[in-house]
């Protein structure tokens, strides 16, 4: 009998094959709280674990990877995009001090290629494991006629929990607090529309001497994951000194820090405390602008920032460094909220503190 759905361009058998290929990777993220395994209509997570909390506050986040996917498609390499997705989602959750519990993903594609889908989900699962987050389910949707056969997009959502009196945020921040910067692994997954415009028709396989590898390899460098190291810091006694965290994503460094500062304070971040990775210099040179012009688009070497009590700053930086996250003091919270002259005080609809970058990079 003719398969009418297949004739319309949707191959359910290919979808079933993709599930079989990804099952082991997904199951590896499951702890005792996950019920029902892979393939159910809904992912199940046993919430009785929350009974140990006095006031459990749930945190949720959803995001995608953006146009970095176009680089993966051009190179036909799909094993890193999953980590970018997880980083964009779970590292937003840890910003409030929450531990991510579970995540789901959604893949839309023009045609299900089981091996490609399994590669994508395998990357998501590996990153979920690193972030101590269960991958409890997902969906792969085939959209013939709406998307080209080899096109796809990915998105994800996660839920976390934090004890109510352990929430991090602007209300904890005080003048005199230290601002710690955590190194990025490179571009992460923001600002790729600008990246792709700059790169234009350059060959992604071209080895760029300043990068020490091909352009494509550099652009696909996966997002650094901060959740597990930060959760370990927050669980340590020194973690009591962590007052706020911010994830440097779209909008750049100053805008994302301003979002987690209270109104009436300011931070001047000292550019001389770090050296942006070569990829930023290369792209800026190709684009004909200086790095300061990209500060509202790229992370320029900083993936997360922490606002920490001054007496805890060195210990927090040491713990993060020991976990493989280079961390340094980049500024101090000051009283007063200057405006103009490069100061940023509002982003994403949040009117917070004032932030600007000063000096020159190393």
TrEMBL record:
SUPFAM superfamilies on file: PurM C-terminal domain-like, PurM N-terminal domain-like
Keywords (A to Z) from UniProt: ATP-binding, Cytoplasm, Ligase, Nucleotide-binding, Purine biosynthesis
Catalysed reactions listed for this entry: 2-formamido-N(1)-(5-O-phospho-beta-D-ribosyl)acetamidine + ATP = 5-amino-1-(5-phospho-beta-D-ribosyl)imidazole + ADP + phosphate + H(+)
Superkingdom in the source lineage: Bacteria
Pathway: Purine metabolism; IMP biosynthesis via de novo pathway; 5-amino-1-(5-phospho-D-ribosyl)imidazole from N(2)-formyl-N(1)-(5-phospho-D-ribosyl)glycinamide: step 2/2
Enzyme class: ligase
Location in the cell: Cytoplasm
Every PurM-like N-terminal domain range: 55-162
A molecular function GO annotation: phosphoribosylformylglycinamidine cyclo-ligase activity
All copies of domain PurM-like C-terminal, residue ranges: 174-336
Primary localization: cytoplasm
InterPro entries: PurM-like_C_dom, PurM-like_C_sf, PurM-like_N, PurM-like_N_sf, PurM_cligase
EC number(s) per entry: 6.3.3.1
Entry's family note: Belongs to the AIR synthase family.
NCBIfam families: purM
Name of this chain's protein: Phosphoribosylformylglycinamidine cyclo-ligase
UniProt source species: Amnibacterium endophyticum
């Amino acid at each position: 009998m003719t398969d009418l759905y297949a004739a319309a361009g949707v191959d359910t058998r290919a979808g079933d094959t993709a599930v079989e290929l990804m099952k082991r990777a997904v199951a590896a993220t499951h702890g005792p709280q996950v019920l029902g395994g892979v393939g159910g209509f809904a992912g199940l997570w046993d919430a009785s674990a929350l009974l140990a909390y006095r006031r459990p506050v749930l945190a949720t986040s959803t995001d995608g990877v953006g146009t970095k996917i176009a680089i993966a498609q051009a190179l036909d390499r799909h094993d890193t995009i999953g980590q970018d997705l997880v980083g964009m989602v779970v590292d937003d959750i840890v910003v409030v001090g929450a531990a991510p519990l579970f995540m789901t993903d959604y893949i839309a594609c023009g045609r299900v290629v089981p091996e490609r889908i399994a590669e994508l989900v395998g990357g998501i699962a590996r990153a979920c494991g690193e972030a101590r987050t269960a991958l409890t389910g997902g969906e792969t949707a085939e959209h013939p006629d709406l998307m080209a056969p080899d096109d796809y997009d990915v998105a994800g959502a996660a839920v976390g929990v934090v004890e109510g009196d352990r929430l991090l945020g602007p209300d904890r921040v005080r003048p005199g607090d230290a601002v710690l910067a955590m190194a990025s692994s490179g571009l992460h997954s923001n600002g790729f529309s600008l990246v792709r415009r700059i790169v234009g028709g350059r060959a992604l396989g071209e080895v760029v001497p300043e990068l020490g590898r091909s352009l494509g390899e550099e652009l696909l460098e996966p997002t650094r994951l901060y959740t597990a190291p930060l959760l370990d810091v927050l669980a340590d006694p020194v973690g009591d000194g962590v007052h706020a965290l911010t994830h440097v994503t779209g909008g750049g460094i100053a805008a994302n820090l301003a979002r987690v500062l209270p109104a009436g304070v300011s931070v001047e971040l000292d550019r001389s405390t770090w050296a942006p990775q070569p990829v930023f210099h290369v792209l800026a040179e190709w684009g004909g602008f200086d790095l300061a012009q990209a500060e509202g688009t790229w992370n320029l070497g900083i993936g997360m920032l922490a606002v920490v009590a001054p007496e805890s700053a060195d210990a927090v930086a040491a713990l993060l460094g020991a976990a493989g996250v280079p961390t340094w003091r980049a500024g101090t919270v000051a009283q007063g909220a200057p405006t103009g002259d490069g100061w940023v005080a509002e982003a994403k609809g949040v009117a917070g503190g004032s932030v600007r970058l000063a000096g020159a990079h190393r």
